[in-house]
Design a protein that fits this description.
Blueprint (H helix, E strand, L loop, with lengths): L1 H42 L7 H48 L21 E7 L10 E8 L4 E7 L4 H7 L13 E4 L4 H12 L6 H4 L52 H11 L4 E5 L4 E6 L4 E6 L20 H10 L11 H7 L5 E4 L4 E6 L9 E6 L23 H10 L7
Helix pairs in contact: 1-2, 6-7
Length: 423
């Protein structure tokens, strides 16, 4: 706050100094040229004012020009200082605001705020500790998918029952918390109404047909009368794949995120499942890519953006998206090397640092390491015989190996940090 006040003060001083300096330069220029002109006229034999006053007028004008120039230069310096100070302050405030994951604004006040055709992600939430929102469910629009920042919200009110039926919440409002959906409408209230209207033909029909009714949502063939789903499939499409005859209603076609629909996920899984990887769609607006070979998981948004707190493959880069990961797992060759043949080498490399043992489940590495408490606590790191960790996300995993943890990298890390590890 003080920096911002000083910056504004410098800005005001700069404006005043610049105005005064330019005025002085203008008056000085007029005085200088007037004095010089009168002196030239006097040399021609025509004396308008005494020569002494002409010289003083010229000197005064030159002095004003000099002072004005110095003042203008000072104003430029002050302007630069004020600009840098204000920019630094604004940057600090911007960083502070970015750290606030929830920036709420009531939906009623911004009904006309956004009118473009962008696709928005909405999520059902519940705020604890707020007197105005106590025991109420709200729906918030998420602005930044990576940080999950909410910028606008509205209460659900009487829409709760319909949403519970759509999301199979079993008459428990709390099961709605975290559920997400997409919409082209920028206002939360309008988005909820549009989402429910899209599912309205299926509401009340699940009791007859079961959960397979979800695969008929938005289909122009659905009518749901007399316990018949449609003329093509009387009891609904019961296969795991997408119904081949599904056709959208012309006036109710919806826009979706690139990886929001189940059929898109199914096509991606066809390429990666042979290499022990699979994608699961989550109701909270995210996707989880499971690597069943290394027991690692990677979290993405429905747009395919890798979440900030997700594990990541370093070889693909920091900003790689879901499609890059799918291409990687589609061609990934699973090579299972038996590191039990290298056990003597590991024992030699970790002599005085850790104990390496072979057990029935795999290879165990034991250390005495606790830098925070400065005490010896036995840590056991367990790996399969192929070097893959049995528990890649347990709390004892070194932070430096967060995205590259296996037997080989752990041995190298232990050798580099032997001063921290005591046997």
């Amino acid at each position: 706050m003080l920096k911002k006040f000083c910056g504004q003060a410098f800005k005001t001083v700069n404006a005043a100094m610049g105005f005064i300096s330019l005025t002085a330069i203008a008056i000085g220029a007029v005085s200088t040229f007037s004095g010089l002109g009168l002196r030239l006229i006097a040399r021609g034999g025509i004396s308008i004012i005494p020569e002494e006053r002409t010289e003083r007028l010229t000197s005064l004008g030159m002095g004003l020009c000099l002072c004005g120039g110095v003042g203008f230069a000072g104003a430029v310096v002050v302007a630069a200082g004020a600009a840098s100070l204000l920019d630094a302050t604004d940057k600090e405030e911007s960083q502070a605001s970015n750290n606030n994951r929830v920036v709420f604004k009531p939906g009623d006040s911004v009904q006309q705020e956004l009118t473009d055709s962008s696709l928005y992600l909405y999520q059902v939430m519940r705020i604890e500790g707020s007197r105005a929102l106590e025991n109420k469910l709200i729906v918030g629009r998420i602005e930044d998918e990576q940080t999950r920042k909410v910028v606008i919200y509205d209460t659900l009110n009487h829409h709760v029952d319909s949403l519970m039926e759509i999301f199979d919440a079993d008459c428990d409002e709390l099961e709605l918390v975290g559920k997400a959906f997409s919409s082209t409408l920028s206002n939360p209230w309008d988005a909820v109404c549009d989402f429910i209207d899209y599912h309205r033909p299926q509401l009340g029909k699940k009791y007859w047909f079961g959960n397979c009714i979800e695969k008929c949502t938005g289909c122009c063939y659905f009518h749901g009368d007399n316990n018949i789903v449609c003329g093509l499939y009387v009891f609904g499409w019961e296969e795991d794949c997408t119904c081949p005859d599904w056709q959208p209603i012309k006036n109710k076609q919806r826009a979706y995120f690139p990886y929001e629909r189940e059929e898109v996920i199914e096509r991606l899984n066809q390429d990666i499942e042979p290499n022990k990887a699979v994608i699961h769609k989550n109701d909270d607006g995210t996707l989880t890519l499971w690597d069943n070979h290394t027991l690692r998981r990677f979290n993405f948004t429905w747009t395919g953006i890798l979440l900030n707190d997700s594990d990541r493959l370093l070889e693909l880069g920091t900003h790689a998206r879901l499609l890059s990961y799918c291409q990687y797992f589609a061609v990934r060759a699973v090579i299972e090397f038996d590191y039990s043949t290298k056990i003597d080498k590991f024992i030699k490399q970790l002599k005085g640092i850790a104990t390496v043992e072979i057990e029935d489940e795999g290879i165990n590495v034991r250390t005495n390491y606790c830098p925070h408490l400065n005490i010896n606590i036995t840590r056991t790191y367990r790996f399969r015989f192929d070097g893959i960790p049995l528990y890649p996300y347990e709390s004892i995993v070194p932070v430096e190996l967060k995205h590259n943890y296996n037997l080989v990298t752990f041995v190298e890390w232990s050798k580099a940090n032997k001063s921290k590890i005591r046997r």
